[in-house]
Amino acid sequence: MTAGTTSAAAPELSPLAQERLRYRRSRARRSTLVALASTVLFAGAVAVGITSSPGWPRVQDTFLDPAIAWSSLPAVLEGLWLNVRVLVVAEAGILVLGLAIAVLRTLRGPVFFPVRALATGYVDLFRGVPLLIALYLIGFGLPALRLPGVPTDTAVLGTITLILVYSAYVAEVFRAGIESVHPSQRAAARSLGLTHRQSMRLVVLPQAVRRVLPPLLNDFVALQKDVGLISVLGAVDAIRAAQIESARTFNFTPYVLAAVLFVLLAIPTGRVADALAARSARRQGWA
């Protein structure tokens, strides 16, 4: 019997099962239509409320001027390209440094206490310092030391600061994933003759990374916004380009344009994070 014949001979659903399937599909269509209608009504009510306000014409001229947005688009896009490059480099550095700190914090034994204490102090320090203050301290304080080999480029200094600060948050995410792996997994790996390093690399870390992907992506969504803060150091990114264009035109439309571009940059990552979270919930039987 061929595969085609086997698939063709698959049993059909019973009338009761077919009726349930039709009911679920009708409920799904109805829910979709209700959600769409309520969204349209809410958006329409908000739009009418805003556009009918007394100050709307002035707000429209000041924040939503199409001609100024179009003329500012090339400069803001060029600045956004710098933000994207900083984002890619920072994400790679954060993943490496955050994972290293998380592994150091999970080392067992009294001999590793100084290492654990150093890693814990790092996390406490950079989670406690506001990012804006860290940018000022590193971006302006590090070049002031005049040490040989210390970078002076504002984009590089901003990237270093983002890596240092966000690695503290990501390290805690990785540590939670590592500690969520049941100790029996480590014991089974050691019983097979694997060393501690091999057990961590081949057994523990793959499971931990898979479990923390949704919160990890959420941290990177926040990072996509915070890369704009490197403008305080003088880097001509999207925000600084919008500031220059706003000062030139005496209009705030370039800021709105930069905000829209950052939102468009963050939406794909946000949807990926939602999809991974939903898949993780389905695997664990929560949804």
TrEMBL record:
What Pfam families does the record point to?
Answer: BPD_transp_1
Q: Can you tell which superkingdom this protein's organism belongs to?
A: Bacteria
* Listed Gene3D superfamilies: MetI-like
Q: Which InterPro entries match?
A: AA_ABC_transptr_permease_3TM, ArtM/GltK/GlnP/TcyL/YhdX-like, MetI-like, MetI-like_sf
Keyword terms of this UniProt record: Amino-acid transport, Cell membrane, Membrane, Transmembrane, Transmembrane helix, Transport
Localized where?
Cell membrane
Instruction: State where it is primarily located.
Output: membrane
Q: Which residues form the ABC transmembrane type-1 domain?
A: 80-273
Q: Where are the transmembrane segments?
A: 32-50, 80-104, 125-143, 155-174, 249-267
PROSITE patterns (UniProt xref): ABC_TM1
Q: Specify the protein's topology with respect to the membrane.
A: Multi-pass membrane protein
Q: NCBIfam families in the record, alphabetically? A: HEQRo_perm_3TM
Matching entries from PANTHER family are given as: L-CYSTINE TRANSPORT SYSTEM PERMEASE PROTEIN TCYL, MEMBRANE COMPONENT OF AMINO ACID ABC TRANSPORTER
Q: Which family does it belong to?
A: Belongs to the binding-protein-dependent transport system permease family.
Q: What is this protein called?
A: Amino acid ABC transporter permease
Q: Which species does the entry assign this protein to? A: Pseudonocardia aurantiaca
